[in-house]
UniProtKB/TrEMBL annotation:
<dbReference type="Pfam" id="PF07119">
    <property type="entry name" value="DUF1375"/>
</dbReference>
<protein>
    <submittedName>
        <fullName>YceK/YidQ family lipoprotein</fullName>
    </submittedName>
</protein>
<keyword id="KW-0449">Lipoprotein</keyword>
<dbReference type="InterPro" id="IPR010780">
    <property type="entry name" value="DUF1375"/>
</dbReference>
Length: 109
């Protein structure tokens, strides 16, 4: 049972907005938002996980045969709450990074 819980938690964290924006390279964030055809041009580093999730929700209309509802969107909605908590814990680091590096640019939009 503990292993199953560990796998579920790891799976949720792998898609977490904060993990994608704080702990992964900026190129990964940019590529993910380009793939989602988001209208966001940049993501600030402060509360970046929450902004990243909103950017995923704020994209082009789905292509025919693809749905922007169901489990994927409910996961993003759930992740906004989790990302808000993690972003608050990461605030000293993200304030430092925002001051030194600026926001995460979505290149090639």
């Amino acid at each position: 049972m503990k292993a199953l819980i560990g796998v579920v938690v790891a799976g949720l964290l792998a898609g977490c907005g904060t993990i994608n924006t704080v702990f992964r390279d900026d190129v990964v964030t940019s590529d993910n938002l380009k793939e989602a055809e988001s209208f966001c041009g940049a993501v600030p580093r402060v509360y970046s996980g929450v902004v990243y999730d909103f950017c995923l929700l704020h994209g082009q209309a789905p292509k025919p045969g693809h749905s922007r509802s169901g489990p994927q969107m409910s996961f993003v909605a759930l992740d906004i709450g989790v990302s808000a908590i993690l972003d608050t814990l990461m605030l000293p680091y993200t304030l430092y990074r925002q001051h030194n590096d600026g926001g995460i640019e979505v290149v090639g939009r």
